[in-house]
Design goal:
Layout (H helix, E strand, L loop, with lengths): L1 H21 L6 H20 L6 H4 L3 H16 L5 H9 L4 H28 L6 H50 L4 H9 L5 H15 L4 H12 L2 H12 L4 H60 L1
């Protein structure tokens, strides 16, 4: 009976998916044009901020990206904001479509594994019910759906902190080039060409793409700051846009912002060092307590045995 029910459920799911694929939903022309404008704006933004995602590098097939694109459209159609996830993925050089598709497939695999195992065990009269396997499958699906996003956010936070450090160095280099008499665009390009780190390469590619598209470099840097979620880069672009014609004020502003960014990084490092010192203190106290218990235990047991 269990196999018959499972087979019927699989057949019904297949027929439902077939109907969804073969059906031709009505398209609203206004909604289609709005969607086209959104896609064009997103493509321009990705080109301008030098987001180049190679499916061969991130191991994303075309079908996986198409599936993720449908999931993205469905989620955005529900009114959910994916901006924070998109910014983290941009730092990791990964696509939102691939991440969504991977998350759904992992959740589906986590759900099906105990269900299939429970079905096989039930078929051989093993003491493992379908209900328990379904509950375990739901729990595993939730865990497998959350783990990719949590891991990605943790890695993106580390890369964002590294990128802020690169931005601070970039500000100092731009200020030095301005002191040498270069203009703002030339100073930005020269400063970005002094390093081959991933953060500086991202800035350099953004400036190059902006020049090819006829966009001012500070506007491109502002969009890059929005894309990766680095406020310092966006503030720098705003300052350059306001005082681009006055090199002295730009130089002073950039130097002040670089100094402020370094003080912030130093404060964060000192805070983390303090937290680690507290953790080491707690570990040492636990070791001392354990050692005292080790010394007192024989005498205490001797007194209790005599009593």
């Amino acid at each position: 009976m269990t196999l018959i029910l499972l087979g019927g459920a699989v057949v019904g799911l297949g027929l439902l998916l077939l109907g969804i694929v073969l059906s031709t939903p009505k398209v609203n022309p206004a909604a289609a044009l709005a969607k086209l404008d959104t896609e064009r704006s997103r493509a321009r933004h990705e080109r301008l901020t030098a987001v180049s995602i190679d499916p061969r590098q991130v191991r994303e097939s075309a079908s996986l990206r198409r599936f993720g694109g449908r999931l993205r459209d469905t989620i955005e159609g529900l009114g959910l904001d994916l901006g924070s996830i998109r910014r983290d993925l941009s730092l990791m050089d990964r696509s939102l479509e691939g991440h969504l598709a991977t998350t759904v497939l992992m959740a589906l695999g986590g759900f099906l594994t105990p269900v299939v195992l429970g079905t096989v065990l039930s078929a051989v009269n093993a003491p493992f019910g379908i209900g328990a396997s379904v509950i375990i499958g739901i729990v595993l699906a939730l865990v497998f759906a959350v783990v990719p996003t949590m891991t990605m956010r943790s890695n993106a936070a580390d890369r964002r902190r590294d990128f802020r450090h690169v931005v601070g160095s970039f500000l100092d280099l731009v200020a030095m080039n301005l002191s040498g008499g270069r203009g703002v665009p030339e100073a930005l390009q020269a400063a970005s060409s002094l390093s081959d780190g991933w953060g500086m390469v991202r800035i350099r590619d953004t400036l190059l793409t902006a020049r090819l598209h006829g966009v001012t470099p500070w506007a491109a840097l502002g969009e890059l700051g929005d894309d990766v979620g680095v406020d310092e880069l966006r503030d720098m672009a705003a300052a350059l846009a306001l005082v681009a014609e006055d090199g002295a004020k730009v130089r002073e502003s950039l130097s002040a912002r670089a100094s402020s960014l370094r003080r912030r990084e130093l404060a964060e490092v000192e805070g983390k060092a303090g937290q680690r010192s507290q953790s080491m203190l707690v570990a040492q106290l636990l070791l001392c307590v354990g050692f005292l218990i080790f010394l007192v235990y024989p005498a205490l047991m001797d007194v209790l045995s005599q009593g």
